[in-house]
Write a structure and sequence with these properties.
This is Inner membrane protein YbcI. This protein is an all-alpha fold and about 180 residues long. It contains six helices and no strands. About 35% of the residues are buried.
């Protein structure tokens, strides 16, 4: 899996790209939570579920249907007054934050792949390009000598692209604002 740091970086970049105002802290925090939440499935190990089980690690909680349902629940439950294009933007933001988790995990060099289509189809997939060093599931194992290699890998393959996305989104937004003000 990618670490919580990488998932939070991706969610933050998506927030900038979606034009979520920085003052909307609750939205930003929920986006980060949605990006990390799929790893709750690692509790399945404590329950004796095998890794490859649909409820196992990188199973249903890493899937696109789960991302869609979670995004709907967050918007419906926590933003009931949101309407129109803002409601759609919130939904897409929370969906992409959650879905980004599976994508990043599919780009790691470990594990059994990601069940993107669970619960309908439990086949596991990896991305064709897997440059991210896998992070251990147990937090105490993360804080070791190996952590520097993991963080370096995530900085290169998640942090820098996330920063690039955020910068490009801001440049695009500024250019669009200038274009509108000239019209």
């Amino acid at each position: 899996m990618a670490s919580a740091f990488a998932h939070a970086a991706a969610a933050s970049a998506l927030g900038v790209a979606a034009g979520i105002p920085f003052q909307a802290r609750r939205v930003w925090i929920l986006g980060i939570v949605c990006s990390i939440l799929p790893d709750l499935d690692s509790l399945g190990f404590l329950l004796g579920l095998p890794y490859e089980h649909v409820l196992g690690h990188r199973g249903v909680t890493h899937s696109l249907p789960f991302a869609a349902v979670l995004a709907w629940m967050v918007v419906r439950g926590l933003f009931p007054q949101a309407a129109g294009s803002f409601r759609l933007r919130l939904y897409l933001y929370f969906f992409l934050c959650t879905a980004s988790h599976g994508l990043l995990d599919a780009m790691t060099d470990g594990g059994l792949g990601v069940a993107f289509f669970a619960p309908f189809h439990n086949d596991r997939y990896f991305a064709p390009f897997r440059p991210i060093v896998v992070s251990p599931l147990e937090p105490h194992k993360f804080f070791s000598r190996r952590a520097l290699g993991i963080l370096r890998s995530e900085f290169i393959w998640v942090g820098l692209p996330s920063l690039g996305l955020a910068v490009l989104a801001q440049i695009w937004r500024l250019a669009m604002d200038r274009s509108r003000s000239r019209s």
